[in-house]
Amino acid sequence: MNYTKNGVENLKIAYIGGGSKGWAWTLMSDLATAEDLSGQVALYDIDFKAAKDNEIIGKKYASHEKSKSKFDYKACETIDEALAGADFVIISILPATLDEMYSDVHAPEKYGIYQSVGDTTGPGGIIRALRTLPMIEYIAKKIEEHCPGAWVINYTNPMTVITATLYRVFPKIKAFGCCHEVFGTQKLLASMLRTEYGYDKIRLQEIKCNVMGVNHFTWLTEAKYKNIDLFPLYKEFANKYYETGYNEESNDNWMNTDLMCGHRVKFELFRRYGYIAAAGDRHLAEFCEGSWFLKNPEQVKDWKFTLTTVDSRRKGYQDRFDQSAKLISGEIEPEIGDTGEEGVQQMRSLLGLTEMVTNVNIPNYGQIPNLPLGAVVETNARFTSNTLTPIFTGNLPIEIYPLITRIVAEQELVIEAALERNLEKAFVAFMNNPLINLSKKDARALFDEMVENTKEYLKEYF
Amino acid sequence: MNYTKNGVENLKIAYIGGGSKGWAWTLMSDLATAEDLSGQVALYDIDFKAAKDNEIIGKKYASHEKSKSKFDYKACETIDEALAGADFVIISILPATLDEMYSDVHAPEKYGIYQSVGDTTGPGGIIRALRTLPMIEYIAKKIEEHCPGAWVINYTNPMTVITATLYRVFPKIKAFGCCHEVFGTQKLLASMLRTEYGYDKIRLQEIKCNVMGVNHFTWLTEAKYKNIDLFPLYKEFANKYYETGYNEESNDNWMNTDLMCGHRVKFELFRRYGYIAAAGDRHLAEFCEGSWFLKNPEQVKDWKFTLTTVDSRRKGYQDRFDQSAKLISGEIEPEIGDTGEEGVQQMRSLLGLTEMVTNVNIPNYGQIPNLPLGAVVETNARFTSNTLTPIFTGNLPIEIYPLITRIVAEQELVIEAALERNLEKAFVAFMNNPLINLSKKDARALFDEMVENTKEYLKEYF
Amino acid sequence: MNYTKNGVENLKIAYIGGGSKGWAWTLMSDLATAEDLSGQVALYDIDFKAAKDNEIIGKKYASHEKSKSKFDYKACETIDEALAGADFVIISILPATLDEMYSDVHAPEKYGIYQSVGDTTGPGGIIRALRTLPMIEYIAKKIEEHCPGAWVINYTNPMTVITATLYRVFPKIKAFGCCHEVFGTQKLLASMLRTEYGYDKIRLQEIKCNVMGVNHFTWLTEAKYKNIDLFPLYKEFANKYYETGYNEESNDNWMNTDLMCGHRVKFELFRRYGYIAAAGDRHLAEFCEGSWFLKNPEQVKDWKFTLTTVDSRRKGYQDRFDQSAKLISGEIEPEIGDTGEEGVQQMRSLLGLTEMVTNVNIPNYGQIPNLPLGAVVETNARFTSNTLTPIFTGNLPIEIYPLITRIVAEQELVIEAALERNLEKAFVAFMNNPLINLSKKDARALFDEMVENTKEYLKEYF
Amino acid sequence: MNYTKNGVENLKIAYIGGGSKGWAWTLMSDLATAEDLSGQVALYDIDFKAAKDNEIIGKKYASHEKSKSKFDYKACETIDEALAGADFVIISILPATLDEMYSDVHAPEKYGIYQSVGDTTGPGGIIRALRTLPMIEYIAKKIEEHCPGAWVINYTNPMTVITATLYRVFPKIKAFGCCHEVFGTQKLLASMLRTEYGYDKIRLQEIKCNVMGVNHFTWLTEAKYKNIDLFPLYKEFANKYYETGYNEESNDNWMNTDLMCGHRVKFELFRRYGYIAAAGDRHLAEFCEGSWFLKNPEQVKDWKFTLTTVDSRRKGYQDRFDQSAKLISGEIEPEIGDTGEEGVQQMRSLLGLTEMVTNVNIPNYGQIPNLPLGAVVETNARFTSNTLTPIFTGNLPIEIYPLITRIVAEQELVIEAALERNLEKAFVAFMNNPLINLSKKDARALFDEMVENTKEYLKEYF
Q1: What DSSP letter does each residue of C135-159 carry, written as one string?
Q2: What string of DSSP letters covers B352-417?
Q3: Considering only CA atoms, which of B222, B208, B357, B226 is closest in space to residue D348?
Q4: B234, B276 in Cβ contact below 8 A?
Q5: Whole-number Å distance between alpha carbons of A46 and D368
Q6: I want to staple B169 with a disulfide (CB 3.0 to 4.6 A). Which of A51, B140, D17, D47 is the partner?
């Protein structure tokens, strides 16, 4: 790459999982509007056809009339080719297929264990990690080989253990995990200010927070708007909507979509602990004792969030597959606009064209002093020229400390288990998980079944 | 006090809870055999009659033909008189009566919550702490006033939060909490070496351990005998007796007594986590999810430990009451011999007459780096001249880290709740407790009932 | 204060040392250009006449034709009146008079100790601290009484110990120390890029640094411009100009002014330690062994920096006194323009109108893990709505660790000495200072003389 | 090795530097009196003849009529043979010859730098480290290869950097550094109690201390005898003998021997900092600014300690050489008695035959929280079965913190320099040393000369 008067050209972005029919298009849109950047996006996917499709679609984004930048898209047959000389690497893969995810999410149901997402923690998240981390190990080694100085942005779940694995395998990697769940809570706070307190024109960036915890179980210990401490307001708000749930203005009803929620889980956690849990309720619920929110589908409905089934994911995939075909055929046009994602903005800051502060997942160097060093945590961080520096958050408050130390310990064990290909160690984490309140015998049976169901992707463990 | 050629004379020991019909007699016996010590024991008890009885009994111990030392016993009508000029203070009280303890232990049963002890953690431990800590606050202030340089030995449960409260109220106090539960595990290891591996004449002091955790939930991360690493041996041992339980040689059967156990809980925890839990099974079980060991009385029986009922405690009290009467009347004689307790040995070390290393409960100054500073933890410590110094243990292993951080957080919240007289804060801890896996509504009902049952001792909270 | 559509009105800024003929005018200028702010500046000074003069001058700034804001200025007869209800407090005082400073700077010369500034460390800085900190203690108590929620910005030297004292006296204070010395080094790096490497239009804000250390002895462990690591460039640069010194473009010659320097000290420290010392050479030299840069005036000249005499300060004061008179009489007009100071920008960020990251002096909460907690350190920090959060810097590199731990220890001792009014403790720090390589006897004589010279302001120590 | 009823037999002790004519004989004596131990001592020395001589002498000790144990001595031609299967390894070598030491100690004198020992810090200590650490690197690798589970006891100076290097090269090594300097101070305190306060029969083990710092610059922050705090007594004592020095009873006059001192340096450091420096004055002086105690030979004499010349060492070597010849010829007999060294006692504790607490040098795991982790520090530690655990000391007091952080940083840099074979990095440490207050030019000339003088042993650096 090289700098020009206005920005950077000849940037090389390697996209691992480049057949993606979601994030990849968002990136294409964001790059199209980045008038200060140009270069190439190298698309690598184990499904080469999917990457090739995205090469076609990427070119359409780049040549769109609204496009302000010059980016070329190229599907690569090998990861080596994609990574060679990359300035940025994006990791956004689907570990295995939806069949494995079906097992992750639904196999535990026969034991009364319901998961609203199943990709981060709980039985599904742990088994998913076991099959994903060896892939990540492979990718990390390839990055070390081909582009050790590149910035690596991970969007794949389970976010925390993947990001940690990148660092364990290649300690000098410059990687971080990105997730927009905190934005959702900032949006909720902005919505509260508008609808309950009469403030208008509030952008979520104006909601200033102290963010700490682990991905999808992130907490705000401070939230401010101008000189207003949002905690007393949120307390009123949580109490008011505790029973009914709260519908954000943007959607008529929390039930319209899998991802929406009535925020009752969030309100309940606030009323219990006094701090704002900052992720979608579907995620938050999975880090708590199973009996609290996920006892059965009725309880989930009462708490006004949803269980995302793998069938609904299959449908979503099919929709995006159709959309892809139409984009290629020209039946539909790419849409270019504000995606709300920060990826390109982060790149721009790391290139020194601007700077920003946002929440990311990186190893704990001491930014959260009372969590183990080296564990990946989510806090705010400052993006500047070729540098990502965590904001110091202070200690986790004692009320939520045990909730988060528990998950950090689980994640550390899962990482060790995966890197050592040690299923027994993984089982220790499995048994300790808050959703898995089973007898050891049942826990073992479930674990073994889930391993069996997904064994095609766990060969290295045997 | 003053030093003589052979030891110390004019020592003053203040005994808070001096009407005790257990520890107090043990102390009397140990002091009687301490030929290098002499002085006075000032007995203070809110039940003055009980203290007076012990004055009589103490004098009998002191004048016993086997007695080698000169100690005088005196019941004091005020705590001030007892503490004035004390060199050592012993705290061994019963907070409230067995009626309150009845509520602590048995009120939760209607919600399916069984407690094998009920004085340390769980609903019983938390409510007991709420009524005890204000008493401890009072005692700490009296110590600061009357004998700020005295060494304070606490034997009362809940040990951890009581010891912590002494330090919160009077930060310069020289206090520690003493408990013999770890000895029981050292004894078990010695027994294993004898019965399984043919070693004989092993004293428990020869079993060298790295001790870490919190009282009654203490763990050994190393255990050695001479150059033998006891972990592989214990692994065999735990596997061999996992199903049947293990009866120590000293007793025919684990069911003979409330305090005995088959060590199955200990074996199970070892098999789960790879470290040796070092307390009686009755205590260990209470720190785990209720469903593991304490689901119902049948499960407890299966795990081969016992639920100590308050009725059995009442019976024990009555027995000791009878024994007290007989000691006073002369119907029975005091018994003087090796009690196995270390209290007098610790005093001797703190006086500089000898030195020793044993496990105690003191604030975390960094001896366990990955637990919060200031929380009271149990580790080995060195007793020397007027100094008690913790042995550095290193970090808690990641497998047991979440188990212990959870209880540390609970205890910190309970201490704050008690010092602030804030029942709502206590309820946060109550809800988070592993035994209390109830809906919030049920948890609240139980909490309110237990508070109501014991309100006579919780007046300051209203 | 209250928020309006465009910003904040009715802001109250209390200025302690409001008779200042330097910073005060800068603030007046910056406030005049702040179109989103309006309110009152309350000027308090022990020299009421000086405050009154500034009231007149402030009004002139506010009513200047270029002024875009509405600020009122008011001299207050008591500190209580000035602080009551303040939103921001500025502390910018001269502790005692230039007579005391004369002793600070020049009394040590008879022992061969030369000081280029004399207000931060060295014999002068230590004695200055002794007389200043009791004043700061008084101010901190008044702030706690009248405006505990106000943000307090300290500009007074010795910066570090003053800021620390504010927190020791009133731990919940929201205070920080501000200094522009780091900007000077960023400016030097920008100048280097322009003159040596052909980059143009570089603003100092584009030089991104990792800042750590203590005020006036601050170091950059990373410096970047876009994707360029500035360390290899600075190495070439330091070597090239090591002998001759480097004149920044803005001034013909480093000797033109007291504050200018040839950066030889900075280059030397870089060549020794491999990190960029980021303050004026006059300051840096004072933290080093006296023999390195401050042996005698000739050596200072060789190193191309200057000894700021108190006579030159007297002259500067007289100039500003004259300027004040002329501003009042109208003989000259206030100048309104970009002052380069960040104070008003920081206020705006703390009000939530914008946000920024810059370097400040606040207690170490762990942002520099290998310095003592609670010591005031200088690092980058993020200013947002009513919140100032340090950026995590990581450990000080081992090369410069001993240089900075030494000064941190000195400062901690001086703070203790001042708060305890304990001259003996201060003398321990005095003897340990790198500039004071004297026999203990000589050190004592000098200390006693300097205390005697300034005893009018040290009465509380006797 | 194997355990018997009474102890351990077939122990293998490898002695690296087994031609030693000092420590080796002490060990022989101590082993001869160890009735619970038997086995073999394998003597390895680059001077095989010297090892062979000691084989003969060792056999004489072992067969002495007072000998209570059975030890065999064997000179080995290779280090591999000596280490194979060792249970304990002793490292006690002379790095290079006295010719190199002559340069270390005396070359700096022409720059006015006098060293009283020259083997730990200062110019001599740093150059000695440079040639020694590569040897230690070699030994550590051999230990990892041949006896990774052995306990390694280092007696060689520079103690701290050697012990640290063992751990850097082979992180799982079980090594510690042993030094008796602290005993000397305990002995002084016992002497004080006898001569000044009338106590008699005090053994140095009864002086209980909190030890912290680095080897030869170790400090006591607490010292107790029974219930007596020795600090106020030591204060009186230091003041009383500050001018005259104090002669311990055991010797008529401090000048009789090179190692004796009048403790004036110790008294001065106590008066400055309030803590007891616990090493011989010759060592302590070398860690301070050169102008304090080591300005010139007259000043040294005034402070009542001595400069140990290399000529006097040569003489000592010759004496021991003669003694060796006489031991071999039978002209003199080995002397068996209490040597005052703890090495064999430590082995016995590590074998689990007993236990002990004493001061040792091991990496900082957190036992001194405000020193860098991993740096080798000296504190008390507990020796038990196959385990060495540091006693937690708490933070270094702020008064002495800068003195010790400075030397820790120097040592860390020297270790890095040696392991990287990087003389430039070593020079940074050299320049920063308190004794080397030279211009950089002079410092460089001295450094280069000292390197040149000893280049035969520094070949790997070029």
Answers
A1: HHHHHHHHHHHH-TTSEEEE--SSH
A2: TSS-EEEEEEEE-SSSSTTS-TTSEEEEEEEEETTEEEEBP--PPPTTTHHHHHHHHHHHHHHHHH
A3: B226
A4: yes
A5: 52
A6: B140
Mean pLDDT (chain D, rounded): 95
Please say whether the beta carbons of D374 and D364 come within 8 A: yes
The pLDDT assigned to C437 comes to: 87
Dihedral angle of Cα B23, B28, B31, B37, to the nearest 10 degrees: 120
Q: How many CA atoms lie within 13 A of B335 on its CB side?
A: 9
Is residue B60 helix, strand or coil?
helix
Q: Which of A146, A180, A263, A283 is catalytic?
A: A180
pLDDT exceeds 50 at position D254: no
Query: Is the Cβ–Cβ distance between C141 and C169 less than 8 Å?
Result: yes
Task: Let me know: does B344 contact B71? Beta carbons within 8 Å.
Answer: no
3-state secondary structure C296-352: CHHHHHHCCCCCCCHHHHHHHHHHHHHHHHHHHHCCCCCCCCCCCCCHHHHHHHHCC
Helix (H) or strand (E) holding B213: strand B208-214
pTM: 0.95
Q: A242 and chain B: CB distance < 8 Å anywhere?
A: no
Measure the CA angle with vertex C123, ends C118 and C128; round to 5°.
65
Residue B338: band (very low, low, confident or very high) from pLDDT cuts 50, 70, 90: confident
Q: Which two tokens stand for residue D336?
A: 């068996």
Give the dihedral of Cα atoms D16, D18, D24, D29; nearest 10 deg: 110
For A400, phi then psi, to 5°, come to -105, -5
* Residues A295-332 as b or e (16 or more Cβ within 10 Å = b): beeebbeebbbbbbebeebeeebeeeeebbeebeeeee
The helix/strand/coil state of A190 is helix
B421-445 residue pLDDT tens: 999 999 999 999 999 989 889 999 9
Instruction: Please name each of the domains of chain A with its CATH number.
Output: 2-96+118-179 (3.90.1820.10), 97-117+180-308+341-462 (3.90.1820.10)
Please, what is the average pLDDT of chain C?
95
Residues of A in contact with C222 (CB under 8 A): 387
Residue B443 C-alpha from the chain's centroid: 27
CB contact under 8 A, B406 and A406: yes
Please tell me the least confidently modeled range out of B194-203, C106-115, C118-127: B194-203
For the question of residue C146 being annotated catalytic, the response is no
In chain D, positions 387-426, which contact chain B (CB-CB < 8 Å)? 387, 389-394
3-state SS class at A261: coil
The answer to whether the Cβ–Cβ distance between A399 and B409 falls below 8 Å is yes
Q: Do A224 and C382 touch (CB under 8 A)?
A: no
Q: B431 contacts in A (CB within 8 Å)?
A: 272
Decide: C284 and C275 in contact? Cβ < 8 Å. no
Q: What ipTM does this complex have?
A: 0.93
Q: Are B281 and B300 in contact (CB under 8 A)?
A: no
Paired tokens of B234 = 């214990």
Work out the angle between the directed axes of helices D440-453 and D423-432 (0-180°, nearest 10). Answer: 130
Cα Rg for chain B, rounded, in angstroms?
Answer: 22
How many CA atoms within 13 Å lie on the side-chain side of C348? 19
Residue bearing tokens 């009581």: B162
- Per the CB < 8 A criterion, the answer to whether D11 and D348 are in contact is no
Contact A392 C365 (CB under 8 A): yes
Cα angle at B23 between B20 and B26, to 5 degrees? 125
